[in-house]
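Pilot study result, target chain (280 residues):
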Amino acid sequence: MSSSIHQPAIERAARLIDAADCLVITAGAGMGIDSGLPDFRGRHGFWRAYPALGRQGIAFTSIASPQAFRDTPLLAWGFYGHRLALYRSTTPHAGFALLRDWARALPAGCVIFTSNVDGQFQRAGFDEEVVTECHGSLHFLQCLEPCCDAIWPADEFIPDVDREQCLLRNAPPACPHCGGMARPNVLMFGDAEWIEHRTAAQARRLERALPRAARPVVIEIGAGQAVPTVRRFGERLAFTRRAPIIRINPHEPDIHGLTVGVSLPLGALEALQAIASLRG
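Predicted structure:
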C-alpha cells in the first residue's frame, strides 16, 4: 500500500515526534519483517516458514514450549537453533537506524519495550540499557529443569540444523551447573519454568527512566492483538501520561479509544521512511 494516501496521518506523526522529548518505542513481530525475518501470523504463515513442522502438523504453540524440549529435544532445538542462527545473521532494516538517530537528538532519548526475542534493537546500535525484552531473548540460555536461576549468553552455541527436517545435528547446549539440557531464556507457551530476572531487571530500568520524560510519544510498530502485551504497555502510557501513540501496523492499525493517536496502516520501514521524509 502506498504511503501517499496516508499523508495527513504521516504529517501528524512527524509533528508528534518533533514535539516529543522522548521516544517510547514499542515493537512486536511486525518490526522484523522488513529485515527478512519470518512472519508467524496464523498457522499457515508459521508453516510456510517451517515446512517440516507443517508436514507434521506441529503448531507454533506446540513447538514453542518447554515440553517440546523434553519430548523432542532435537526438533525443538532445530526450530530454536535455526531462529538463533537467523537472528545472528540478519541485518536490521533501515527503520531501526531512523529511530536510533531520532532518539539521539532528543533530551530524554528513548526507551524500548518489545516482545521480540531476536535482539535486533541491540544489533542496530541501541544501548542494551534502554531495551526491555518482555518475553526474554533467544541470545540467552537457562537450564531446562531448571536446576538454578542462572541465565548466560548463548554465544558459544553454534547450532547445526538440518533445515529440511528441522532437526539439530550437533549436541544441544548444556547447563554449566548440572550438565542437563539448556533451553532459550524466552517465555514460551505453558511455561512455568521461565527464569525472568533478566527481563525483570530491564523492566525496573524502564520504570525508572519513564518519569524523566516530560513529553513522551509512543511509536508502536508491528504489535498485534493476539498477544497484546506490547499494545497494553503503550496504551497504559496513553491513559496515565497522556502520551500520544503512533500505531504502525498494516493489519491492525485501529486506535479507537485512545486520547491522542495516529493510525498508519503501513509496514514498519515504509512508515518510518515516510515520517523521516517530512522531518528533514
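One observation from the pilot: The longest strand covers residues 136-143. A full batch analysis is planned for the follow-on phase.
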